[in-house]
Structure formats: C-alpha cells, structure tokens
Amino acid sequence: MPRGTPGHAVVTWRTGTGPYGKSGKVAFDLVDIEIAGRPMPVSGHYRIDGKGEGLLAVATVVLFGLIVGSQVTGHDAVVAHGSEWMAMPGQTLDAAYAKAQADAADPYRSGRAAGRAAVLASAVR
C-alpha cells in the first residue's frame, strides 16, 4: 500500500474532559482504505489520551479548595488531520493489482526490467 493512502475509521469509545484535571480519551478502529477507487477492508485499533492537568488540579485544591479545584479540566484527545496509522489488510491483493501498484510507485521499474532482459538476451546469443 502506498504511504498516505486515505482511509476511514469508526470511533468506538470516547470520554470528555472531567473535573480535577481529567483528560479526554478516544478509541477508534480502522475500517477501510481506498485503493484504486474502491474500499479495501483493514483492521487496526488505536487509543489516544489527551493531556491531563492532575498536578494543576492538586495545587488548586490545596490553595483554593475542592470546589475551585473541580473546575480544572484536562485537554481533549485530538486525532490530527493527516496523521498516519498502521493497519493490517483484511483481504489479500491479487498479483496483477500488486504489480500495477509497484509500477505506479516506481515509473522506471518496467524500463529497467526490459533493459535487464535485453542484456540477458544478448548474452545468450
């Protein structure tokens, strides 16, 4: 699969930020990637945690009390646009498709193969 192939995921679990510095969390499963205009099933499971603010919450409780400390929250979990994730294919690719993808990734591959074949043919004579 070429690097940067677009894919789709489904959010399977999430929590929001909470009191006392609790961070947000999100879990998602990769569902498919788009290859040659058609979806190909893949699998992969990931979880992202936001940044917690526990130390700030403890300091706030000590200095100002429980009520003010409960107002300190962590940060949301964020999946950055354009981020890359590894996935396992859910089906095998046929050989013709794999060769077409390899040729597309290296436009000079077929020319080099033809050149090697010509050298081998001239050496046989």
Would you give an account of this structure?
It is a single chain. The chain starts with 6 loop residues before the first strand and ends with a helix. The protein contains four helices and four strands. It folds into two domains: 1-91, no CATH class; 93-125. A hairpin with a 2-residue loop joins strand 2 and strand 3 (38-49). It is an alpha+beta fold and 125 residues long. The longest helix has 16 residues, at 109-124.
Short description:
The protein has 125 residues and is of the alpha+beta class. The protein is built from 4 helices and 4 strands.
Q: Give the overall silhouette.
A: rod-shaped
Rounded to an integer in angstroms, the radius of gyration calculated over CA atoms is 26 Å
The largest sheet has its strands arranged as: 1-2-3-4
Element pattern in H and E = EEEHHEHH
Estimate what percentage of residues fall within beta strands.
Answer: 25-35%
Distance between the termini: 40 Å
Helical percent range?
25-40%
Mean pLDDT: 75
**Secondary-structure content class:** alpha+beta
Number of strands: 4
Contiguous runs where pLDDT drops below 50 for at least 5 residues: none
How many distinct domains?
2
List keywords for this structure.
2 domains, single chain, 4 helices, alpha+beta, 125 residues
